[in-house]
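ARCHIVE CARD
Drawer: 12
Card no.: 0347
Subject: one protein chain, sequence and derived structure
Cross-reference: see card 0346
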Amino acid sequence: MAEGTSFFAGLDIGGTTVKSVLVDERAEQVGPLVEVRSRVKEGYLTTFGQLDEALDKLAEGAGIPRSAIAGIGLDVPAPSSEGVIWGKANLGDDWVGTDIRGKLAERCGVPVFMTNDGNAAAVGEYAVRRKHLGSLLFVAPGTGLGGGLVLPGGRTYEGANGLALEVGHISVPFLEDDGQLPRCSCGLKGCVEAWVSLVALRRRLAFELQKPQWATHPLAVSDAPVEEKAFRLRDFAAEGDALAVSIFKRQGFILGYALADLVRVFDPGLVVIGGGLAETTFRDDYMSWVLEGFDDRAWPVYRRSPLDSKVETTQFEWAIGGDASAAIGMAYTAREMVMAS
């Protein structure tokens, strides 16, 4: 390593692990992905200790002194503004109202940049696409439905209060079997997250298993809790099971329908879908269902140029950053901001 070279750490705080990566001044990853146990419910000071451990391991893995780390990017699984956590989410009580960014910067002696996990994953997907210079809209079906928007040049759009791109909570006009809008975990009705999330899969599966047509289905006769059954849906869908395919097909269609409105507002040019579905064997089918929903709602100009039908005005891709995408995004952000200052 050249003397005086600076490095930048990305720290992705999750509910079970803290994932971290290190990049150099060229934005190239240095050393391996480091994971340490997350203890966010025990308070932010306990988590700071876990972050110290991660930073030490990053430096050791790269063969550099920790003092060579010139900036840190940090993402948190909660809403925040200017480094201050606004809501508890899955964190401990003392995170709320605390200037996490400022306290960590003081502790580590380097600049710290902080955002939420959806934004971090979005910029991570941007960072690993070296040839993509335009905007990027990212959505990730998981326990909920997260997302983020990256502007040309690699900066995320967070809004005035850090609350932008809550993509899971835009409304879609799809009714449940009883003719009602489903209630979202946020308390509102009709959110896309009420259809496109692990929580939604559990609800939909419970509804479907009450129907006579599925009475002999392995999931219907199983005594396992619905949470466990929902986790098995991907395996069933991969085997072409009619019940699982019908549930994921409806989910994909509704996600595409919601993406049409987001694309109409932001016109990103590239939509990236992340989360666990990116690793499934039926993801090509899932993407086709997303595109069906998108085409049902989007104006044709948002799919193909009216001047040349061979030109796609909106491209759809699966995420390629894997589990490290959020950490990569934060390391990339730290590098960009430190080197620009």
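Annotation on reverse: The chain is about 35% helix and 15% strand. The chain has two domains: 7-129+323-340, 136-319.
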